[in-house]
Specification:
mainly alpha, two-stranded antiparallel ribbon, globular, 5% strand
């Protein structure tokens, strides 16, 4: 296992710590699980790298309108369907 450091906005850190404490998990464990979910949703591939960009961070959290998230998800589904 590799140790690493990350920087988090204070609000995100506090929310993550509370989430972990409520579930009796470590911050490291929820971070690992979150990364696993993220990487499952956005598998590494050349087309995925070209078509998806990380939403902009604004004021300590990801602030993306729901309509944009639906559009991103729809585009990803279209890409996956085309690969099959």
């Amino acid at each position: 296992m590799t140790r690493t450091q990350i920087q988090l906005p204070d609000d995100l850190y506090q929310r993550a710590k509370s989430f972990a404490a409520e579930r009796e998990l470590s911050l490291a464990e929820i971070t690992r699980r979150g990364l696993e979910l993220f990487l499952e949703r956005y598998p590494e591939s050349n087309s995925a790298k070209r078509n998806w960009t990380l939403p902009k961070v604004n004021g300590g959290g990801i602030k993306v309108p729901l309509s944009d998230l639906r559009e991103i998800a729809s585009e990803e589904e279209t890409i996956r369907s085309a690969r099959r």
